[in-house]
Amino acid sequence: FFFLYFPETHGISFRIQITVKELLDTDVLLKLLFNLPVNYPATVPDISVNSDQLTRAQCMDVKDKLLEQAKKHLSEPMVHDLILWIQQHLKDVIKQSGTVCNEKTTSSKGTSTEDGIWMLLLHLDHMRAKAKYVKTVEKWASDLRLTGRLMFMGKIILILLQGDRSSIKDYLILQKTSKVDVDSSGKKCKEKMMSVLCETEVQSQHKRFQTFEVKEYSTLKELQKEFETAGLTSLFSEFVPPLLK
């Protein structure tokens, strides 16, 4: 399946997830993100590859091979052909990089600090279509395997996410470019009032969230306790109190 969204000046971007069956005794779920520039197909798309069953190095090899194939299809629509090609040749590509990892024991080998576990704290000004907005955020977090909290306290709305840095970046793209809310006239609109408060690598003192949850807090003290429990006291102190001013 895929998400389709339309940035005003950057062409079309969409996400596709495909499963390659019986690859080295393991089904491999590939998450592909294609960013098609305005002058596509005269220019090859930017491609991002992620998979819980492959190492980071293997994902990079898959990306490189897809870009090689894309250059062979310049000036003609190519995304469908690229998907078919990788379904047929994935086994050969990753054999050159190593074995497939089981999802529950995915190795961190080949994962640099840049691509480790990161954390993102966002502030939203408001949600007019709250129920729909919340469902959308929950779905994005689930699809990108991000954990954390969507937090409401009075007029404060915060989104705290943890996960692979590439997934964090993909989430930001979706948040900025998708029509997630409605304007004052009820027409669907993009998020224009979002602030990125913090984007940083998860440290040893930080507790890893195991799930993504939507929570409401009646007092600032309750919200502060959520941050403290996660080892994020300094994050709370630096970014949350100023929002009350």
From TrEMBL:
Gene3D superfamilies registered for this protein in UniProt: Ubiquitin Conjugating Enzyme
Compartments (UniProt record): Cytoplasm; Nucleus
PROSITE patterns according to UniProt: RWD
InterPro entries: RWD_dom, RWDD3, UBQ-conjugating_enzyme/RWD
Alphabetically ordered keywords of this record: Cytoplasm, Nucleus
Keyword Transcription regulation appears in the UniProt entry: no
Keyword Nucleus: yes
Any GO BP: positive regulation of hypoxia-inducible factor-1alpha signaling pathway
Limits of the RWD domain: 1-93
Pfam families: RWD (PF05773)
Predominant subcellular localization, coarse grouping: cytoplasm
GO cellular component, one term: cytoplasm
UniProt name for this protein: RWD domain-containing protein 3
GN (gene name): Rwdd3
